[in-house]
Design the sequence.
């Protein structure tokens, strides 16, 4: 996808309209390369996202909810020190590069008015967020770059800030016809779209192809296939597109194929995708917020949790196979009497059986209907030893019943626990969620912590998700097994209502009822919807959800995190509704 110079230019102009004079209220760092600002401007709260992720670097306003770590990272604390309370006075995109400068005016420690620059370098794997002092000195970067990584451009506190090396390209906003034609004509052996992209900054392959196509030319054709008149058409297309950009007539657009997969996004409709579905958005921020939250965020979290999820799936598969084998053995053990009967029949008829016989048939006098029974024999054994073999098998199976029941009693909660972990991993919403699940599994003995640890290292700890019902009741939802325990047996009071998808792995959901009021049916249904949505049955059309008072929910001694039993419950049938879930969600910013 193309977060190119055109997208950044569009974003910058949107931000100028919203953010100039806005005051910096709060700063968070939800993930290692992600910063969010809460800004107060023009009578409203605005949320600005800046990401230096190598794959998904970007900047835009957002409505996405993030889980923030309980202890802010060092770079976040630095930003708070210098920028909190300051006002944004300028935004700049130098040279149409994928770089945005946010100029923030604030008071320094001596009470003097100074200007700081937060530089967002949004250049793929080289992306970074860097805070500069008024004299262009680096205060710090979200990613520090030492001389061992780059001899020419260190990103370390105290170093002078050096802009990224300029590409040998022209600024498209400064383009003139004669220079454009001269530059393009030098690329006679190059495809047309590559000739445009090679000579002008900030133009992605997507936009270069669009410019050529809108000129009525073939993007993949070489320059020497066209005349000077054709190149003038290319210039007119180039100028028209940048006129749309600079006059603010952009239409942020996402292109999707028949399966709903996003093929491209840009600041204008893309003719190169023909009849594919194109959806426009009111702003570039709205488009990027939709795209990254709904599509890329899931991909990122899936990558982060992939190995752990595979390990849990393997453990679960192993336990399920073991359970199947134990149940088979239990069925056999319950039929142990069959072996005793065969032993008795052989003993009663020893005089009729000769050594070397492979089977023996006789009337089964233990059968009320006196039917004939055929008994398989080992021809290498004597009749007496064959009888003893059946008695031995009978005694072994009879003894094994109690052992199998004990093993199943241990295995069933283990399987239930792993299924809950699997659901938690599938539904994580942040890296903090992932780290908390990982630490839970380490605590439970499933993994050894191979990371370097110190005695004072604090465990990651998040809070349950918060929602507000239409009737004003607080609803809390556990993010993982450990948090389900914390919510149900710690946070909730006896008269709070508790919800869980019936016999399905999922989150514990609690309606807080501080005033001990009667809970309206609408709130009951909304809490049940949350329980259905945050369960393994999220994609089902109908989910049975049980609910009861917390005082009827209990935990067995020594039970694994998140595993409880309950009584005196009612059941409601629910269809999971993502739109309702998002409507009820309380922002964690």
Sequence:
């Amino acid at each position: 996808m193309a977060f190119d110079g055109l997208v950044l230019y569009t974003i910058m102009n949107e931000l100028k309209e919203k953010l100039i004079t806005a005051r910096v209220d709060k700063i968070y760092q939800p993930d290692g390369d992600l910063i969010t600002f809460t800004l107060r401007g023009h009578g409203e709260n605005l949320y600005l996202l800046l990401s230096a992720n190598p794959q998904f670097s970007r900047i835009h306003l957002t409505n996405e909810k993030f889980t923030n770590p309980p202890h802010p990272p060092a770079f976040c604390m630095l930003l708070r020190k210098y920028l909190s309370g300051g006002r944004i006075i300028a935004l700049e995109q130098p040279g149409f590069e994928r770089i945005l400068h946010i100029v923030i005016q604030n008071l320094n420690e001596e009470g003097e008015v100074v200007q700081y620059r937060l530089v967002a370098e949004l250049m793929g794997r080289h992306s970074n967020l860097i805070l500069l002092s008024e004299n262009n000195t680096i205060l710090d970067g979200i990613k520090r770059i030492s001389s061992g990584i780059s001899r020419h451009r260190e990103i370390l506190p105290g170093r002078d800030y050096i802009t990224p090396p300029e590409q040998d390209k022209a600024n498209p906003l400064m383009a003139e016809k004669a220079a454009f034609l001269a530059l393009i004509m030098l690329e006679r052996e190059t495809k047309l779209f590559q000739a445009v992209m090679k000579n002008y900054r900030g133009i992605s392959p997507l936009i270069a192809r669009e410019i050529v196509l809108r000129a009525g030319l073939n993007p993949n054709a070489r320059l020497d296939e066209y005349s000077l008149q054709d190149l003038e058409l290319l210039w007119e297309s180039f100028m028209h597109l940048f006129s749309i950009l600079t006059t603010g007539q952009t239409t942020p657009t996402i292109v999707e194929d028949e399966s709903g997969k996003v093929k491209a996004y840009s600041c204008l409709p893309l003719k190169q995708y023909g009849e594919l579905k194109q959806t426009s958005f009111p702003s570039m921020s709205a488009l990027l917020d939709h795209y990254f939250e709904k599509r890329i965020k899931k991909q990122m979290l899936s990558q982060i949790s992939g190995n752990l999820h595979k390990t849990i799936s393997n453990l679960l598969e192993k336990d399920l196979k073991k359970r199947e084998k134990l149940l088979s053995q239990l069925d056999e053990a319950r039929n142990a009497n069959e072996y005793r009967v065969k032993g008795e029949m052989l003993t009663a008829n020893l005089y009729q059986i000769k050594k070397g016989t492979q089977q023996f048939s006789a009337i089964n006098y233990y059968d009320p209907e006196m039917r004939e029974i055929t008994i398989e024999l080992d021809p290498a054994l004597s009749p007496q030893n064959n009888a003893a073999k059946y008695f031995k098998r009978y005694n072994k199976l009879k003894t094994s019943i109690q052992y199998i029941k004990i093993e199943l009693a241990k295995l069933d909660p283990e399987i239930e626990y792993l299924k809950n972990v699997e659901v938690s991993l599938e539904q994580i919403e942040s890296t903090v969620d992932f780290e908390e699940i990982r630490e839970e599994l380490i605590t439970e003995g499933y993994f050894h912590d191979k990371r370097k640890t110190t005695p004072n290292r604090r465990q990651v700890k998040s809070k349950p998700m918060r929602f507000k019902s239409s009737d004003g009741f607080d609803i809390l939802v556990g993010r993982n097994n450990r948090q389900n325990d914390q919510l149900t047996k710690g946070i909730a009071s006896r008269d709070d209502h508790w919800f869980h998808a019936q016999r399905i792995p999922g989150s514990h959901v609690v309606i807080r009822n501080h005033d001990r009021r009667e809970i309206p049916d609408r709130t009951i249904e909304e809490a049940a919807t949350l329980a259905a949505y945050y369960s393994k049955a999220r994609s089902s059309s109908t989910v049975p959800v049980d609910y009861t008072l917390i005082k009827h929910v209990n935990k067995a001694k020594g039970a694994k995190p998140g595993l409880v039993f309950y009584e005196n419950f009612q059941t409601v049938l629910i269809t999971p509704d993502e739109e309702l879930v998002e409507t009820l969600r309380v922002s964690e910013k």
